[in-house]
Design a protein that fits this description.
Radius of gyration: 24 Å
Order of helices and strands: HHEHEEEHEHEEEEEHEHHH
CATH architecture of the largest domain: 3-Layer(aba) Sandwich
Shape: globular
Helix content: 40-55%
Structural class: alpha/beta
Largest sheet: 6 strands, mixed
CATH superfamily of the largest domain: Vaccinia Virus protein VP39
Number of domains: 2
Strand content: 15-25%
Length: 324
Amino acid sequence: MNQINPYRAYWEKAQEQSLKLAQFYTPECLVELCIALLQSQGELYDPCCGLGSFLLKAKEKDETLKISGDDIATDLGELPFQFTSGDYLASEDKEFDYIIANIPFNVKKTHCRLVDENYCWIEKIIKNTRKKALIILPSGVNSGLNPTITKKRIEIIASGYLELVCQLPSHLFNKTGIAPCLWLINKEKTNQDIYFLSAEKFSEWKSKQRFLSEENIKAICNKNNWIKADLKKIEENNYCLAPQRFEPWEEKEKATWEINQQLIKCGYELRYSLHALIADAYQKLMTLEELDDSGDIKVDCFLEGKRIVELQEKIKGLLLEKHF
């Protein structure tokens, strides 16, 4: 290895340009973790590489590795690897042995045929991977009630390609408290089992920000700390991939989770009832078909109002039960 480390030089350049490019750059400890989990060999590709933190770190560890990347940004300057400027999601499919990516989170849908562009990234990366891929994702991809996205998540689970879902600690990224997750894709798997891990217990605080020490990274990569779930167990959890669902719980924690699920359900029902109430009242006001002799509106829609009151009381009771 040369004394002059090109990775370090470009890493420092990435930090200097972070505000200019309006991006949250992946912290070095998270780059180290991703490289350690993926264990790439031969070639590594990053479809949203930015200034190439993942690629340069991997190259630093293995000089024989062939690295390349794409990015939609056009002002990245000269990069020390094969680089193409363009929109990966709109590009032609290209296969690589190993892919690594910190995708842009929750980007507004453009050319994506799914309602959630995060899944457009997941779908294309899986398609373009020959062996393994590692993707940093917003935690919302692990759950959600949208039927189209739920169906897509079930398809990925059934494919057997998903090896690990790791919930990262919050406050790893600079200036944001988000807690993203990692998906490790392995096309060489021969079963549908998935491993889960909540990595917060393997992290440390430093200057109001979390970081991963070398020991933390080793613990996260240690499969003995992963929790395995088969397809039946995942189905019992309604195909939700939140790692917390699969960790052993104390009885009190389980009760709290069940109350939270009821609160979420009541919240959706309350929102639906409010929308129905507003829509019904608006229709009556517009048509004036429900006016009686006194000029008052006949309020059949108050049946929804009664339902709203019932839901509010139920939520109040659940909150009291949760906290007291």
